[in-house]
Automatic annotation (TrEMBL):
Bias (Low complexity): 204-227
InterPro entries given in the database record: DUF6801
Region (Disordered): 202-260
Designated name of the protein: DUF6801 domain-containing protein
Domain of life assignment: Bacteria
Domain DUF6801, first and last residues per copy: 39-192
A Pfam family per the record: DUF6801
Length: 676
């Protein structure tokens, strides 16, 4: 599957602040040194092998107070015995002394930790892709594989030494162009487990006292707003400790670690827009908001159940909204409502808490949905009332007491695909508006205001934009790239279309005529679009049917039946469209089965790092709403499942091998798709 480069960079930045629970605060100056050789013992059912991993990284020698120490890319060199390489990659029935053709590829993941002041946390290093420099030789000679990846950094909470250490290693290898085998080999570190360390000088202590989060006024302040935006590095401080804003309960069976010492998190900004609906009037009032956030200031995890909860907090600027409805005897009534984020009754902090639940490792299966929760208290103030064009003076103190605001959004799951807080989403919730007070100038109009507004039958729907960082030079900077607006879709007429492709092709290597390939005379997908205005980018459509006609598997020239399963597959539009009328879609939940007349059966989906089957994801499919086409992305792939059964030496049929779909679907009838 192809990943958008911006998405990869952004995920790396997010991981930087996620992983350092318990060792984060505001840092001082630092000197860095990372370089190590770690010996691992890897055991198969037949033998035990020694594998040596070398680590190297260039790290900054000075860190500014309050900013992350960026580790950048870590390079890995793996020295693997040739006998182990053969044991992991050799085809069934071959002899141990048979020469191995092609180079070696694979993936490795290191369980690493960071520790400071007696606290140890998961360093959350990513999976490294590996490749050898040339063809492998026989005779058991060692194979050297190399790879690199961007790893998380940290911000420390004061003077001391932060130490990275290695624990277990999970290794997967493959011969030639094949992907890795069905399951990783678990290896144990035996020596040299200290990877590197940073000596941190004295820095300013982190502020953790609750405080109001108003934007600064000095343009020279370190928390000054990004030029031309409503965005700043505010808020700073802490999550809101008021128990009325506590996180929601976890799913049954989840046992989270304690919440450690908090860290400053990453400053972020977001815009939101949507509608508040007054139940008594049946009227929708447009609302908007500008939020300043601190992303991932803390985390709790359940390693056994692959579950993580992150903590974020923020503050929203007061947002006035004006709407018109029929009230006061079915007369046109206009009013302006100012929504202000406030402290709970008797509380001291007015910040909102934002929680997110998601898999700790998305390369492994998870039964849990990804959720986002916003919890705060707000106060409503009414002004500018006019009934049938006549102004009604309600004074300047017509307002409610603080009321709880509890919103949530489902960011998906393994079947429909997942997203996260910083990529925006649709938050919804019910609101119980308490009675107003102080309404009227000389005449008490509070009962009339209550009669039209107060009560439990009110709701709020907010569409969040993609978040941005208020600092220049950062990934998705508000300064460099501008703030994103909330993004929704209008689809008309909606309903089902039939998309056809002639021919339909999927292959291991589309540029190699000798590769494994399935070609069908035609394919038809039934795509069902939602209909309406202000539709979320998530599940905007789904594939409810798929047929493949007269298929042949090459290079064997075997008639093959290709079938889709686990329908419907979901379709999202998570990426901004840089070309007018063209939207990059993500297909999730994809499963295909190819059954040849020779008994070869191939299953295509996504392969988890542990070798398990997961729903396939195909990204960056270009939907051209003007020309009614859907074009596949040639770098987005499905992988061969471990349950596939095929008596062939073709590496494209081996578990984990990547197959890509190629071509363009044309569909009808026409769908008018716009982003209002």
């Amino acid at each position: 599957m192809r990943s958008n480069p911006r998405t990869l960079a952004r995920n790396a930045a997010v991981t930087t602040v996620i992983v350092s629970a318990g060792v984060l605060g505001v840092g001082g100056e630092a000197s860095a040194d990372m370089g190590a050789r770690v010996t691992y013992l890897c055991s198969t059912p037949d033998a035990t092998y020694k594998v040596v991993a070398g680590f190297s990284a260039t790290m900054p020698t000075v860190a500014k107070a309050g900013q992350a120490v960026r580790l950048g890319d870590v390079s890995v060199t793996l020295e693997v015995p040739g006998t182990l390489r053969a044991a992991l990659t050799r085809s069934p029935g071959s002899r141990a002394d048979d020469p191995l053709s092609g180079g070696t590829t694979g993936a490795v993941r290191f369980a690493t930790t960071m520790s400071e002041h007696g606290q140890t946390v998961d360093a959350a290093w990513p999976t490294f892709s590996l490749a050898s420099s040339g063809a492998a030789a026989g005779g058991g000679r060692p194979v050297v594989l190399r790879g690199s990846a961007a790893v998380p950094g940290l911000v420390t909470d004061g003077a001391g030494t932060v130490v990275w250490k290695a624990d277990s290693m999970y290794l997967k290898l493959a011969a030639g162009n094949a992907a890795s085998g069905p399951a990783p080999l678990t290896c144990t570190a035996t020596s040299g487990t200290t990877l590197g360390q940073i000596r941190v000088g004295v820095g300013a202590p982190a502020s953790r006292s609750p405080r109001s989060s108003r934007p600064p006024t000095s343009p020279d302040s370190s928390t000054a707003r990004a030029a031309g935006t409503g965005c700043s590095e505010e808020p700073v401080g802490d999550i809101n400790r008021d128990p009325r804003l506590a996180p929601p309960s976890t799913p049954d069976g989840i046992n989270l670690t304690p919440l450690r010492v908090l860290r400053p998190g990453t400053p972020e900004c977001a815009k939101a827009s949507g509608f508040g609906t007054l139940g008594k009037l049946g009227a929708a009032i447009p609302v908007g908001a500008q939020a300043r956030l601190r992303l991932n200031v803390g985390a709790q995890i359940d390693l056994q159940n692959n579950f993580r909860r992150s903590y974020t907090y923020g503050h929203t600027d007061p947002s006035p909204a004006t709407g018109t409805a029929l009230g006061f005897g079915f007369m046109p009534t206009r009013a302006t409502v100012l929504t202000s984020q406030v402290a709970p009754p008797g509380g001291t902090s007015d910040v909102a808490n934002i929680y997110s639940d998601f898999p700790k490792d998305e390369s492994l299966p998870s039964p849990w949905d990804t959720w986002g929760y916003i919890r705060s208290f707000v106060q409503l103030k009414v002004s500018g009332i006019a009934v049938n064009g006549v102004d009604v003076n309600v004074g300047d103190r017509c307002q409610t007491d603080p009321l709880p605001l509890d919103l949530k959004n489902n960011f998906g799951n393994d079947q429909v695909g997942r997203s996260s807080l910083q990529f925006g989403g649709t938050y919804t919730g019910k609101i119980n508006i308490p009675g107003f007070r102080g309404c009227g100038a000389g005449e008490d109009l509070t009962p009339i205001i209550d009669a039209t507004s107060s009560g439990p039958d009110n709701s709020l729907r907010l569409e969040s934009s993609v978040w941005c960082n208020p600092l220049p030079g950062e990934v998705h900077s508000c300064v460099d790239e501008g703030e994103r607006e909330p993004r929704t879709f209008t689809v008309n007429p909606g309903g089902s279309v039939v998309a056809t492709m002639k021919p339909f092709v999927m292959a291991g290597d589309l540029n190699n005529p000798d590769t494994g390939k399935i070609q069908c005379e035609s394919a038809s997908w039934k795509i069902s679009f939602k209909r309406g205005h202000y539709l979320s980018m998530y599940r905007i459509a789904s594939i409810t049917g798929a047929r493949f006609n007269k298929c042949v598997r090459y290079p064997d020239n075997v008639p093959t039946t290709l079938k889709a399963s686990a329908l419907p597959w979901s379709m999202d539009a998570p990426a901004d469209n840089s070309t007018p009328d063209v939207y990059l879609m993500r297909l999730a939940g994809v499963y295909l089965t190819a059954s040849g007349t020779d008994g070869c059966r191939l299953y295509f989906n996504k392969t988890g790092f542990d070798g398990s089957d997961m729903p396939g994801i195909l990204s960056d499919y270009a939907l051209d709403a003007k020309h009614d086409t859907l074009t596949t992305d040639l770098t987005s792939a499905l992988t061969v499942s471990t349950k596939s059964q095929c008596d062939s030496s073709n590496s494209d049929y081996s578990a984990g091998a990547a197959w890509r779909l190629a071509g363009t679907f044309s569909y009808k009838p026409h769908q008018r798709i716009t982003t209002p």
